[in-house]
Amino acid sequence: MTPLLEGIRVLELSAVVMGPFAGQILADLGAEVVKIEPLTGDIARDTPPCARPGMGAMYVNNNRNKKTLALDLKREQGRLVAARLIARSDVLLHNMRVEAMERLGLGFEAAVAINPRLIYCSAIGFGQRGRYRDRPAFDDVIQAASGLAGLSGALGEDFRFIPTTVADKVGALYAVYGILAALIARLRGRAGPIKVEAPMFEALVSFILNEHLAGATFAGEKGSVGYERILSANRRPYRTKDGWIAVLPYTAEQWKRFFRETGRHDILQAPWFADAVQRGQRIDFMYGEVARVLVERTTAEWISVLLELDIPCSEVNTLDDLLTDPHLQDVGFFDLNGDYPSDIARALPQPVIFEGIEQRPDRAAPGLGADTRDVLRQCGYDETEIEALFAEEVVR
User: What are the tens digits of pLDDT across the range 29-46?
Assistant: First the structure.
């Protein structure tokens, strides 16, 4: 943990990936993050694989460095506990539907009535000003709606999902930078509450169209959507004599070095090669030439040659390969740093490195309700009141 946000209090009401991933980033940066879970827990707790009940890998990897409070928000007493937490928090982060938060009495207007300086972040599926605002949203749905699942169609293939929860995680990153920007504004003297909305749909559309808006960026008949290089059918991992490799000559000089190495002087001497626009129009042909020659040598031979020529390249790793990748071992990527139970072998760090800032031990994702008593005490409840909340099954 890096204590850059020390002193900032975040109340998190979220489950699965988007909200928890955003909350974990803030916790890793030193914020005190209190996660409210239902009495049955975040559903990710029981998403397999699980080392033990209630501690599934998805939960473990998205809830480090947090405190957890198991609370029944459908009960009046539970909502009163939440109100006390809101009053002492700098940020409220949730990924519930907006109408669900309002039904619980925890919508924006209700929350800022309790704490007029609150930063209120809704990490949701669709922006609330559009017609999709009430639709349920999960990662697959957003991959489809955003055009991501349809990108493979531009290559003449069936539509398909990217096999990672990319919409959740991209949306989480947008939520984090929104919260951080709001915190900076508040520290610089901005008064009153700030509402932050981070919708997955709009976030992923922006993320995808960054390069793919292409010709549609301009007025008139300037071209269509889709970045040609990225959509080339020959832009793919390439077979070598014994495996797979990724190779990306990108600049004119890199292409020259590649074609000299492979003996394609005819391409180097072609009139179109010297012109960047004309090279771009022939990118599928050029990638095809890359694919054609790479099968002539082994992956290791190509890596050695291409690195010597300063041409970007890499072996194609599997998920298993990452566990033993030498570079990741060099940087201690999976090393445990802090309070972890014996059944946890690896942790995923924040990849941003801060030099000159002390590092503190991490706290592993907590068991359900592990901090309930401590959090209640911090909110001003005495021991008699705490025991009553347990007895009435408002908390666990």
Answer: 999 999 999 999 999 999
